[in-house]
Input
Amino acid sequence: SEKTIIAPSVLSADFARLGEEVETVCRAGADWIHLDVMDGHFVPNITFGPPVVKAIRSRTDKVFDCHLMIAPADPFLGAFADAGSDIITVHAEATTHLDRSLQAIRDLGCKAGVSLNPSTPESVVEYVLDRLDLILLMTVNPGFGGQAFIPSVVEKVRRVKSMIGSRPIHIEIDGGVTPETAPLVAAAGADVLVAGSAVFKGGSEEAYARNIAAIRAA
Ligand code: DX5
Ligand code: ZN
Output
């Protein structure tokens, strides 16, 4: 819808031209830039770290939404904040002391997010709601772009929406978001949609603009 935030994941961009890709996708209508950080340990893939985030920071003023799929996360929070992250999201499954990690992120001046894998129950966030700015619900098992949306998570979106009540917490969806799946999660209460392959297919500004518009219209 109009006010749904679209956050393209640069995981599906051309890494050889990452700075330009960020500029292009912002011109094409991206609201936030979603940055998938993977360590080859918590998830079976490796992407990039703080130096790359820092290198592309100057290309846009849009929100940098950093999704850390790393374990441990705590030793690197400062580096991701210094690199220019606006939001730092850690995985509940990768963090032993979630309450402490969330406090640390806010102490660094960033918004704090927690991400849940598809199999993780929403109850893990129940006692940290007042430390949270965003809850990221994975609709694929993290590690790769281009995977199929897991529909059972739609019910979890509904439950999280009712759990957060009137708190100003974003509900973000990540994995397999397309014009077909976007309406399911938006209707359930999600207000931020990450999309990688569905945005970057086509490889041109016109294609990105069309792809973003199609998700928004859905
Ligand atoms: C998966 C990442 C996602 C991924 C989404 O581990 O967290 O952000 O890039 O890609 P698509 O939209 O292609 O499923
Ligand atoms: Zn992500």
